[in-house]
Amino acid sequence: MAQHWQEILPIDRYIVTANGLLHEYDRKVLTFLYQPLIGSTCFSLYMTLWAELEENRLWSESSTHHLLMNLLGRNLNEIYEARLKLEGIGLVKTYVKTEDEVRSFIYELHPPLSPDQFFLDGMLNIYLYRKIGKNHFSRLKRFFSEQQIPKGTGYQETTKAFQEVFMSATPGTIQYMQDNSEDLAADTDQHFIGRHDSSGVQIDIGTFDFDLLIAGLNESLVPNKALNHKVKEVISKLAFLYNIDAIQMKNIILSAVNEANEIDLEELRKAARDWYQFVNYDQLPTLIEHTQPAAHRVQTEEPKTKEEKLIHYLETTSPLQFLKDLSGGAEPSKSEIELIEEIMFNQKLLPGVLNVLMHFVMLKTDMKLTKGYTGTIASNWARLQIKTVKEAMEQAKKESQKTAKNKQATGKTSKQKPIRTEFLPEWFDEDPSKKAEPHKETTKDLEAKKREIEEMLKAFDD
Is pLDDT at 404 greater than 80 in this prediction? Predict the structure, then answer.
């Protein structure tokens, strides 16, 4: 991001640690399963940090980010973006401390999911399938699978139990260890080296409207105790992945209840996937097909005013569809789709907020979705923790007014009134009652682009 310098500087120091031991087999998992999702820069950053760590087991020596820039051959902006991706996918946790105006970081590496966890994740495996295709996905499954022991072909287990091989400790030994139990534990401020399984990508359960879901479920069919924390985590992940609201999720849950009145998680995942593929012609989802979660929508009643209709549209339209609407129905370019997915993945902006961001950026940059400018605004809005369309619209209005004031302060105005080369919607104006009337454009191309936006906004007057 263009404002990465607010978060990190080349002179800032860092050390690397690990949440337990990393195994050699993790390299294969990262190479073949994670790299297609996070890209080569993220992969290189993780491997470089891991290499620094290997010199001293679980803690590396202190280094500067300038050294990291030289090792990777990347600028600090690219390293910062890669770090955010690693954080988002659950491979890195970052801790920062500021002391005497000097920042120092701890980068804690987390192991990747094991192959069985990854292929049964219900989210990362779906994105990988969509990314690399059926044939290569099947090849990777074979690569990370092994033939089971043929137990059912006449083999009988003869393994001895512990007590059959070893003698029990004497009463005196047991009493001695009880009296000196502190000798068994790790020293103060230390812990034993071990392996901690990765928790994978986490979706905040607060983004799903469980109150509405529970209100629609019959207690006799699905007891409230069946919706435990683990089940809620899976429901939240499936709702995010497949863009399922509480009403649709109710029917999916009912199809996954077993004889014990419990929710079978595997059946729940299968039912959610089958539902999505049925309504989307057997396709699997991408990030930019999601719409604003119900928990973060501000439009609760039937929209009446032009602004309310605009908010409703932005909340109920996916970023992919919004891009198409801005282009008059034309398919977005591959680079635009990758940019939007990257912002949703890294900055975790909600779909409705992202729609406002795209609208704001394109109106400011002659209908171009430029990576640098879009990334700068996205990073800023993420730090401001903007969650709703209304908040995004207010922030866009502030930034538009700030830009206008900066131009006046730098003397970039002339005696003649400048010709506007963009059409600003109503919610950018300082006075909500004042409409932004389009002025004559300087070229035919700009006039055509202006008319496209005008036609789209006219829909809100119906």
Answer: no
Contact 290, 243 (CB under 8 A): yes
Could you tell me if 110 and 92 are in contact, meaning their C-beta atoms sit under 8 angstroms apart? yes
Residue 144, burial from CB neighbour count under 10 angstroms (0-12, 13-18, 19+): middle
Tokens, residue 158: 């003869």
**Tokens encoding 256:** 């996954």
For residue 280, the model assigns a pLDDT of 66
For residue 219, pLDDT over 90 is answered with: no
**Residue 386 · residue 392 · CB < 8 Å:** yes
Residue pair 119/274 in contact by the 8 Å Cβ criterion? no
Asked if residues 54 and 140 have their Cβ atoms less than 8 Å apart, the reply is no
CA gap 232, 208 in Å, rounded: 9
What does the alpha-carbon distance between residue 235 and residue 124 come to, in Å, rounded to a whole number?
A: 15
pLDDT of residue 86: 92
Closest CA to 22 of 66, 52, 61, 64: 52
Average confidence (pLDDT) over 201-210: 70
67 contacts 23 by C-beta, under 8 angstroms: no
Tell me: pLDDT of 221 over 80: no
Written as one letter, the residue type at 156 is: Q
